[in-house]
Amino acid sequence: MELLSFVIEGPIEHPLTHAIEVSVELTNGERRWCCFATPAALTQFGDWISGTQMRIHYGTPHLIILAEVTAATIEMALQHIDKAGDIREATREIDWSERRSEVIWVFNGANARLPSAVFRYRVEAEAWIALHKLTGMLTQYPVDASVYDWAIKEGVFTPRRDAEKSATFIERFTTAHQEHYHYEGGINLSSEST
Length: 194
Prior knowledge:
The protein has helices at about 70-85, 95-100, 120-130, 145-155, 165-170; strands at about 5-10, 20-25, 30-35, 45-50, 55, 65, 90-95, 105-110, 115-120, 135-140, 180-185, 185-190. By secondary structure, it is an alpha+beta fold. Strands 1, 2, 3, 6 and 7 form a five-stranded mixed sheet that branches. A five-stranded antiparallel sheet has the order 9-8-10-11-12, covered by helices on one side. A two-stranded antiparallel sheet has the order 4-5. The longest helix is centred in the middle third of the chain and has 13 residues, at about 70-85. The protein is globular and about 60 Å long. About 20% of the residues are buried.
């Protein structure tokens, strides 16, 4: 048995439409994480298969599906997984070096001047957008870095003129190289990131 403790990251407000993140601590001090969702929630987020209205989920061994997501069912599931000796396979290691280049997802409504929501994970953002049938754009932003500095570091932008190094330019800078998705009535209209 390796499971020492776990923390549910945030309230379980919409378990039928949201994935719930859980941080796990093992007896050796290692910290890992996973997500819990219901089958119904899977219809609210994920990638669209191009040209269809069908969502796809794959490559996420740390996504655990339960008929009902509550604190009690999460605890029972983690204990079951740990007892079976699969806690490492069912969770993902938290890579602290990745935290330095962490990203967030920002939603701007179609008629909004300012963002209306910020999420750590796209899956959570998409579930919220679908739940409320929102229209707007979801954009990925770097954490602890400006879009301007990120674009230079990634090699997608190089300032060539003095005006492109000015405060006015930097404070208004955006780039199409940021991963972003367009939604109408809660439906992702983007077949892939643009």
